[in-house]
Design goal:
The complex is a heterodimer of chains A (about 375) and B (about 425). With about 375 residues, chain A is α/β, with parallel strands linked by helices. Chain A is about 25% helix and about 35% strand. In chain A, a hairpin with a 5-residue loop joins strand 16 and strand 17. A two-stranded parallel ribbon of chain B has the order 1-2. The radius of gyration of chain B is 23 Å and the shape is globular. The chains are: A alpha/beta (about 375), B mainly alpha (about 425). Bound molecules: flavin-adenine dinucleotide and FE2/S2 (inorganic) cluster. Flavin-adenine dinucleotide binds next to strand 4, strand 5 and helix 3 of chain A.
């Protein structure tokens, strides 16, 4: 670094220090967040711009992400945190567009039965709401050079695929554009939905099909019956020459995995539900930092069990009032011994529990 | 006041073990009801409270940049004082209690929050949440009872050094945030036991000094510097705002457990204490301040000290709704709900500080007429050894009893007398 540059750095550092000294014990960011929550340098957030219904129980949510949004590759998903009944809930949603000129991103959500976040996003979310975001992630993306591909999607499983297709074949007022970079792709989409009207992105898919950009094989349960993966070879005769990408319910993905394994075919899947927690009685506690694993009964506080196993645990009153025992629960499911309330955590949810009044209701993983 | 177990008219003597457990169940049900209701409106409350406080602080500090002009000084100092009070009381204290942890917002969480006070929040959480809330008003366990430096109860033997305690209490009020920091460090006890070399104490002490340096740097150097020609005026404004906040916090907190009518408990009485008994101790060991909604907000809802001690993890904005339900239970179980407006409550607490700074019974046996002879007596007791003090104390207690008897029989409310499960 040359001298003026170094002097510049020193100046920036001292100015930052000075401002921090003026706002302590808070950070300058805590005040800036009041006015410009989407600025560069802030925690990544976004503002809902619009909510557009797609079908009766699905909607597309357009979001203006904060300045530090690093972009994404179509097919990737992002995790979004939204406050529902005052509690921050994090869920993953696939991005349904390629990078856009207006810098906005979009997700399409299907409300699942009893689904907390999906119902909220589809039916109650309103423009202007501030949401919390993580950068895009995921490996479910188009192979770069092109090739012969088969997409098998079911229900909301179409979302990552529509993101890739829209990016490959943008639609203008004159119809579907065929760009040079798309010429190397030969794509068949087998899309499954309960009925035609309930099929998300039906119009987009049909338009792409009409223009010859893709070949669409739509299967509606009420018209064609439930798809049997063994019928795939009949529907897509050149199946063996294609790399398959699938996204949909666990049942379909498992069947497809078995089907492709037997035939030695290439398959990449995107699972919308990674782990599934059912509240039971007790489970295994694992503590990463101390390397301890211990099995816990469903009626004993995690604090007691862990201490007995030799884990050094923070604690205080041991009766649920002082919060001296809180630890982040990376993943797992616990039950409040006082009222039976169940709390589940998946990585990144930021769930913190009081170990003195929580018992394992399944396997629990702590970083502690 | 005497520990509840030694009282002639033990206020819980009429409660059976079953009564107490039933009371505990009813309180659990109240807690459960409010847990179930807790939601978006509560989250909106704390967020708007934090926003208001930050706007107020920014605004006041901006006005103070021109504190050379008297109106700006007055407005800025008032705003900053209120902002500091909100930050400590309704926001800091309650966030650090974990009252808002359920929102899963890492920015409003007991594990990440740092407050505008000399005591680092980690140390305060230990001393306050774990020790004080757990051992509320248990003599010898709850350091909040007199902060380990005051005589807070008749059962603690009197010593001439206690004569100074009204003065110390006043000084403590002025510098309350430093008092709390010293108290969280257990500085007094450490000095007494010469444990200043303990590595944990040293590490904590370093943390406190660092926090104090940053806090003082902000209020007494950086903001005055920013004010340029108004340097000294802004410095003064910050001193005043901190003192106002300290005195206010001290008064509110004194009202919580110090007024006359609040019960204390023996160490031995909490061995094997049930949840119901724990609840009863919180009910009788705390006192409320009655007043308007504004008063409740400015006290951080510690005006609902009783409700706060019963349910320290329920959001503070709910205590006002919980209070009538709790009051019903006090009536149902024939217990005394100690609540007075701010001024009488502060007076009552200060009265107790004065009373206990003197030997038991001295104030009761003193009239304007015998004041000179009483003062002589006090002087002699103070100069005498422990033996003299004990003898004089015995005489004075007797005297006080005689005077009380002459004043006529004290009407003790009739209570159903049952086995007292708390008396071991
Ligand atoms: C990588 C990834 C990408 C995803 N992309 C999308 C997307 O683009 N669009 C979209 O709508 N969803 C997507 N999901 C699923 C989404 O993250 C949520 O799981 C879903 O919205 C349900 O959340 P909820 O809060 O409504 O349900 P919860 O309240 O958590 O669960 C309610 C009930 O629904 C069941 N359930 C939970 N998840 C699912 C699920 N995925 N399908 C069916 N039932 C479920 C639960 O077992 C429970 O019985 C994606 C998930 C992952 C992991
Ligand atoms: S140890 Fe006090 S809340 Fe868990």
């Amino acid at each position: 670094m040359n001298l003026p540059q170094r002097a510049g750095t020193v100046a920036v550092v001292s100015i930052t220090r000075f401002i921090e000294a003026a706002t302590t014990p808070l950070l300058p960011a805590d005040y800036l967040d009041l006015f410009i929550p989407l600025r560069a340098g802030a925690d990544l957030r976004g503002r809902i711009v619009s909510v557009t219904p797609e079908t009766q129980d699905a909607a597309t949510i357009e979001i203006q992400p904060g300045a530090d949004w690093a972009g994404h590759v179509p097919g990737q998903y992002l995790r979004i945190g939204i406050d529902i009944d005052g509690i921050r809930q994090w869920r993953a949603y696939s991005l349904t567009h390629g990078p856009r000129a207006d810098g906005r991103i979009a997700i399409t959500v299907k409300a699942v039965p009893d689904g907390l976040v999906s119902h909220h996003l589809v039916h109650r979310a309103s423009p202007g709401t501030l949401v919390h975001l993580e950068q895009a992630a995921g490996e479910f993306v188009l192979p770069l050079p092109g090739g012969r591909l088969l997409f098998v999607t079911a229900g909301s499983g179409i979302t990552p695929v529509i993101g890739m297709l829209r990016n490959l074949f943008p639609v203008s007022a004159d119809g579907v554009l065929k760009l040079p970079r798309s010429a190397a792709y030969d794509i068949v989409v087998v899309h499954v939905a309960p009925t035609r009207p309930a099929s998300i992105f039906r119009r987009d898919l049909e338009e792409l099909d009409r223009s010859g950009a893709i070949r669409l094989i739509a299967r509606y349960d009420d018209e064609h019956g439930v798809l049997d993966v063994d019928d795939l070879e009949a529907l897509v005769p050149d199946l063996a020459q294609r790399a398959t990408f699938a996204c949909g319910p666990a049942g379909l993905l498992e069947a497809l995995e078995a089907h492709h394994r037997v035939r030695g075919l290439e398959l990449q899947t995107e699972k919308f539900r990674t782990t599934f927690h059912v509240a039971g009685q007790g489970g295994t506690l694992s503590f990463a930092a101390s390397g301890t694993t211990v099995s816990a009964d469903g009626d004993r506080p995690i604090l007691d069990v862990a201490e007995q196993a030799g884990v050094l645990m923070p604690s205080g009153c041991r009766m649920g009032i002082c919060f001296g025992c809180v630890l982040p629960l990376r993943e797992g499911i616990v039950r409040d011994l006082r009222d039976g309330a169940v709390t589940t955590a998946t990585p990144g949810d930021g769930v913190v529990i009081q170990t003195c009044i929580s018992a394992a209701a399944g396997d629990c993983h702590f970083d502690h | 006041m005497t520990v509840i177990q030694k009282k002639a008219d033990n206020p819980i003597a009429h409660l059976s073990a079953q009564d107490i457990e039933e009371l505990g169940r009813e309180l659990d049900a109240i807690r459960q009801r409010f847990l179930a209701e807790r939601g978006a409106s509560d989250a909106a409350y704390i967020r708007s409270m934090i926003k208001t406080q930050r706007y107020l602080e920014l605004g006041s500090r901006a006005v103070l940049l021109f504190s050379l002009f008297p109106p700006a000084w007055v407005v800025g100092t008032a705003g900053l004082s209120i902002s500091k009070i909100l930050e400590n009381m309704e926001i800091g204290h309650n966030v650090l209690h974990g009252q808002w942890d359920w929102m899963r917002d890492p920015k409003i969480h007991s594990t990440t929050w740092e407050w505008d006070s000399a005591s680092p929040s980690d140390q305060w959480k230990h001393a306050h949440n774990e020790v004080h809330h757990n051992y509320t008003n248990v003599i010898g366990k709850d350091n909040d009872l007199g902060y380990g430096i005051f005589r807070a109860d008749e059962d603690q033997p009197w010593h001439p050094a206690h004569l100074g305690q009204p003065l110390w209490n006043f000084v403590n009020a002025l510098i309350f945030e430093y008092g709390i920091a010293a108290y969280d460090l257990e500085l007094g006890a450490r000095l007494k036991r010469k444990q200043l070399d303990d590595p944990e104490f040293k590490a904590n002490g370093k943390q406190v000094l660092k926090k104090i340096r940053r806090q003082a740097g902000k209020d007494y150097l950086i903001h005055p510097l920013l004010s340029g020609p108004s340097f000294f005026h802004t410095l003064g404004a910050n001193v005043v705002a901190n003192v106002v906040r300290n005195v206010w916090a001290h008064s509110v907190i004194m009202c919580g457990h110090f007024p006359e009518g609040v019960e204390t408990f023996e160490k031995r009485s909490i061995e094997g204490e049930t949840k119901g008994e724990w609840y009863v101790r919180q009910m009788l060991g705390s006192a409320n301040i009655s007043g308007s909604r504004l008063m409740h907000i400015m006290t951080g809802n510690l005006s609902h000290q009783i409700e706060h001690h019963l349910f320290p993890d329920l959001p503070s904005n709910r205590y006002a709704e919980i209070a009538p339900l709790v009051q019903e239970l006090f009536e149902k179980y024939d217990l005394t709900y100690c609540a007075r407006p701010l001024v009488p409550q502060v007076y009552s607490a200060w009265h107790k500080v004065f009373r206990l700074s003197l030997p038991n019974g001295w104030l009761d046996t003193t009239t304007p007429r015998n004041l000179p002879s009483q003062l002589v007596k006090l002087y002699k007791i103070s100069r005498g050894g422990a033996k003299v003090r004990r003898a004089a104390q015995a005489r004075m207690t007797q005297e006080a009893r005689r005077i009380a008897a002459e004043r006529g029989p004290v009407v003790v409310p009739q209570r159903r007398v049952r086995r007292d499960p708390l008396a071991a």
